[in-house]
Each structure stands twice: as structure tokens, then as C-alpha cells.
Design goal:
Blueprint: E1 12-13, H1 21-27, E2 33-34, H2 50-69, H3 77-96, H4 101-116, H5 122-145, H6 155-176, H7 185-190, H8 198-206, H9 219-226, H10 230-237, H11 254-277, H12 286-291, H13 294-308, H14 310-325, E3 332-333, E4 339-340, H15 349-353, H16 358-363, H17 367-378, H18 385-397, H19 401-424, H20 432-459, H21 462-471, H22 475-486, H23 502-508
Antiparallel strand pairs: 1-2, 3-4
Main location: endoplasmic reticulum
GO cellular component, one term: endoplasmic reticulum membrane
GO molecular function: 1-acylglycerophosphoserine O-acyltransferase activity
Length: about 500
Amino acid sequence: MAAEPPPSSFSYRTTGSTCLHPLSQLLGIPLDQACALPARCLWSLCLTRVNFVACQLFALCAAFWFRIYLTPCKTSSKVRHAFATLLGIYFSIFCFGWYSIHLFVLVLMCYGIMVTASISNVHRFSFFVAMGYLTICHISRIYIFHYGILTTDFSGPLMIVTQKITTLAFQVHDGSAGRAEDLSAEQRRLAVKVKPTFLEYLSYLLNFMSVIAGPCNNFNDYVAFIEGRHVRMKLLEVNWKQNTSCSFPEPSPTGAVIRKLCITLVSLLLFLTLTKTFPVTCLIDDWFVHEANFLTRLFYLYVVTQASKPKYYFAWTLADAVNNAAGFGFSGVDKNGNFCWDLLSNLNIRKIETATSFKMYLANWNIQTAAWLKCVCYERVPWYPTVLTFILSALWHGVYPGYYFTFLTGVLVTLAARAVRNNCRHYFLSSRAAKGIYDVVTWAVTQLAVSYTVAPFILLAVEPTISLYRSMYFYLHIISLLIILFLPAKPQAHIQRQPQTLNSRNKEKTY
């Protein structure tokens, strides 16, 4: 195993603020990105930067202050929009320095499209400009900075802004140009009937709660939150029975924030311990590739990919907590009548770790990005929605070859898993024991399939990916292809065939 350089040997450079440089030296963690590390180590640092964590912690404090002292009942929506925007711009400059100009240029270009383009074309122009600009920036990182050896990685916020720009553009189109009968119920609910003002546009894209780590959210939800209509709107959506003697309640997010901060802390501790114990370099060691037997390789692949998850749990849960602390993210009530704060949640850890199907795993991982893909691609394209959605997801993530290995493998696994589930699952529903055996087996298969699929996402480059898959005999690719070729997509007997309208397709399929 290649030895990792000690923290003292890190070469710290950043175009953002250097005021926390002494702290980064003390902790041995880069301010923004360790420019002297090889590409294979990039993944382990991208979410543990001092400037990133400092901004998120400050945003958490600012969010509590924003909710308590700039409440909608005492403060105008313009003031709330302006404060959220200015603080978000400051965070961008603090973290990324002059690289933050990419965010501002893209936002200004797409606002120009929003106000000048026709309603019938605003979504197309916004999508191609935003995705094109993001792709150019991704390519520049490859050819200028050589596979992730960066001084500053500004692509994360740019990816979130791209999601929001395109989401809003499609929703504006739905609100003015889309025919009601052509829209799904969800599209009608989220349609934006009036183009946003410049301040609303800036606030939605650059607010301090989500500019650094997201998540993506819907424009109507955000404006309702700023204007103080968010809770009432969500309660009405779930048919809240208002007591005639009482007004709508004001649920506190404090409990949800504390719970999510506890998850964040546990995730950080797991990341700092598991990643050091099971680094990704295990997957390309000579011992792993040439000496270990197949079952040992499979076990190590599972453990290494498990060890890479906590950093995402940490970043996404912290981002969710920041929004909740500001009062944003209320989603209604659950079946027991408890208030829920999961509107912006990006993952469901319990369902991820207990997933018994590839579909279930994807539905609970990076939830807001999945919703974005559904909004701008899956529901819109007339052909091959699953394939095109996976390709768009890979392009949005970047131009590292590993992303495309992962998402193209994901297409095969998704189609194969769908065929197996449709053809086999009903045979195991006759008894509780049979269903239990089916769940255990499908859980193990799902976890191993996910590990195999996402490994290139961690390795990034072509050579280590091919080396890994060769050592695994390309087993999942071969099995998936055989299943797709020899099992029907739907069984003939027990699934009732229905006409494939847009709305029925959205309900039946997943990506």
C-alpha cells in the first residue's frame, strides 16, 4: 500500500481566505484542497476542508439568528432576501476567492436569459447555458489542474447553482407555457407563474443556507419560506385540520436540528476513523489485485465503499441542519401527527443501509439531486429516460472517467434489478418466512452491487477502475447483461399492462 504523506507535508494553497491557515496547520487538514496529493486521494479530502466547515458552522449560527431576529412578521421579505444573498456571496468569496466569479457570471448570464428569452424557450436556453458552463469548468479542472490536484475546488457550489437555475427555468416554463393536461400533478404544484425579480433570483441561487453545500430546492418553497407562508402552505398540502379557535402552529426546528447535528458528529468521527483504516488505495494494491481471492476482494470492496459514505452523511446532514435552523425545510406532519423537517433532506441513512433493491437505495441517496434529474430530464425526454438520466447525472458530476463507468454500470444494474424484481419477487410473498429470506438475500445483493457500481466514482481514473473490475472478473456487468437479455422487462402474467402516458410512466419507473 502506498504510504500517504504526513499532514505536515501538505502544500496548502487557496484562492479563498487564509485567516484559518493556523487552524488548518494545527489539524493537518487543508484550507480548501491539498494541492500536493495524488488524484486517488482527492475524494477523501473534498468534504473535510477547514474553510468549508467554518462557513457551514457560521451559517448554522447565522441561520438561528435569521429565524429569531429577521422573522417574516417583523421584517420585510426584501430585507430577508437581501441579507441571505449578501451573506451567501460573502461565504462564496471567503471559500473560493476569485474563483467565485464563476458562480456570479453563471447566475447573471442565466438571469439575462430568464428576462429576455421567450417562455417557450427559457428552459432550453437556461439548461444548455448552465450545463455547458459547468462542463467547461469541469474540463478546465482536468486539463489545467491534472486530475484533481487543485488549489481550489469551486465546482461543488457551481453544481448546486446549475441545479437551481435549470429547476427554476423549467418551472417558469411550466407555469406560463405548459398546458395543464400535459403536466403531472407535481409539475402543476411547483409551476412558477410569474418570473422572479432580480433580488428573488439572487436570493434563491446564492443564499447563505445553501450556496456552499446545497441542497437544491424549489423556488415556490423558498419564496414561501422567505415571506413566512412556508409552514401554512405545507400544512394545507396535507389537509391540516385547523382548530377554529387557534391559528396555524409555529413548529420549532430545534429538535430536528439537534438530531441532525448529532448525526453529523457521528458521521465525522466515522469518517476520520474508517477512512484512515480502509483507504481507497486498498482497491488498487498489488495484494488486492493479484493475491487476494474473489470473496476477500468482494469483502474489501464493500468495506472501503462503506468507509467513504460518512463524509457525505456529514456534509449533507449539516447542510440540512443549517436550512432547518433558519426555519426552512418544514414538510408537514407524519402519520402520527408529528411535525416533520425533511423537505430538504438529501438522504435517509436508515433506508440506505437497509435497502433491499437498487431502486430503494437510489431513492434515498442524494434525494434532491434525484428530484432535479426527474424534473429536468426523466419526466421530459420521450426516449430512453433511464439511460439519458444516468448520462446527465454523470455529466453534471464532472468529466472524470470514473463517473461514467459508475453511471453506465448503474444503467445496466438498474435494468437488471428491475427485471429480476418484476419476474421473481411475487414468488416470495406467499409467507413471512419466504419474504424474510428474500429480503435478506436482496439486501446483501444490493449492498454488493452498489459497492461494485460506485467504486469507479471513488477511483476517478480509467487505469485503477479497469484494474479493479478485471480483478473482479467484471462479474456484475456480465450478470446484468445476461439478466437483461434473457429475462423479460415485465412478466406476462401478473403485471397488468397499462398505456404508457407521461404520468403513468413517472409513477411506475425510477432511475
